[in-house]
Structures are given as C-alpha cells and as structure tokens.
Amino acid sequence: MISFNYEIDFVLEEENVYESWIASIIKSESKFLGDINYIFCNDEQLLKINIEYLNHDTLTDIISFDYSEANLIQGDIFISIERVQDNANDFNVSFEHELKRVMAHGVLHYCGYKDKTEKDTVLMRQKEDEKINLFHVEL
C-alpha cells in the first residue's frame, strides 16, 4: 500500500495516478509492493531528520528509511517540497518533473540502486529517467 502524508500546505493531485506509477516502478524491477509512506515536508523538518538520524547538517531533497525485506519493497520517504522547487529551478525543469524524479529516486534505493559513487550516480539517473517515462503507462 502506498500512502501520502502532508506535513505542509501541499497536496499531491491525483494520488491514485501516482500510486499506480510507483507500483509500476516496483513491478518493472521485479519486486513486490509492501507499505510505502511518502511524507511531504519542508526544509526545516527534513534538516532535523537529517541531523537526528544521519548526523548530516545539510539540506537535502529526500531522506528514505528502507524497511524492505528481500523483494518486498517498503519504507518511509520524506521529501522537502522546498528543495524540490529549488532543484526544479536550478535544473530548469518543471516542479512536477523534479517531484517525480525524487519520488522515483526513493523507491529505486529500495530496489537496490545506490548513488555514492560517480558510476552508481550515472546508473541512478538513467533509472530515474526510465521510471519517469513510466508515468501514466500501464505495465
């Protein structure tokens, strides 16, 4: 089950479309959907989580807590809407495109993709693009 939670004044339009899309990402990686919680928040909230749980005193767009077991994908994904908007502006893409990239990014981590090395980051970006292209596409 996929749930969307809002800690700020933001609501994802057409949640059911996003649910289907996230499920299709997981299916395309030959994994199974468990419980995934998306929590939309602001920079301040995500910074507190980053400091408390990861000992990183930096702003970030996403923090994911992976509770996956084998091929059952589950976890909590915190997303700063402020960071997503700033990144969209910096990368000259729409807010919606950047939000999809970040939402896919969290699930891709659960599927085993990393982004700590340059090689891993290149693959992660390719996978993000591939999964964004699944939006509105039924598998």
Automatic annotation (TrEMBL):
Q: Does the keyword Mitochondrion apply?
A: no
Tell me the enzyme class. Answer: hydrolase
Binding locations of Zn(2+): H105, H109, D115
Q: Which cofactor does it need?
A: Zn(2+)
Q: Which domain of life is it from?
A: Bacteria
The alphabetical list of record keywords is: Cytoplasm, Endonuclease, Hydrolase, Metal-binding, Nuclease, Ribosome biogenesis, rRNA processing, Zinc
Is Cytoplasm given among the entry's keywords?
Answer: yes
Entry EC number(s): 3.1.-.-
- By its UniProt entry, which InterPro entries does this protein fall under? MetalPrtase_cat_dom_sf_prd, YbeY
Q: Which Pfam families match?
A: YbeY (PF02130)
Q: Where in the cell is it found?
A: Cytoplasm
Q: How is the cofactor bound?
A: Binds 1 zinc ion.
This molecule's function is given as: Single strand-specific metallo-endoribonuclease involved in late-stage 70S ribosome quality control and in maturation of the 3' terminus of the 16S rRNA.
> Which family does the UniProt entry place this protein in?
Belongs to the endoribonuclease YbeY family.
Q: Which HAMAP family match?
A: Endoribonucl_YbeY
Q: What is this protein called?
A: Endoribonuclease YbeY
Organism equals Flavobacterium jejuense
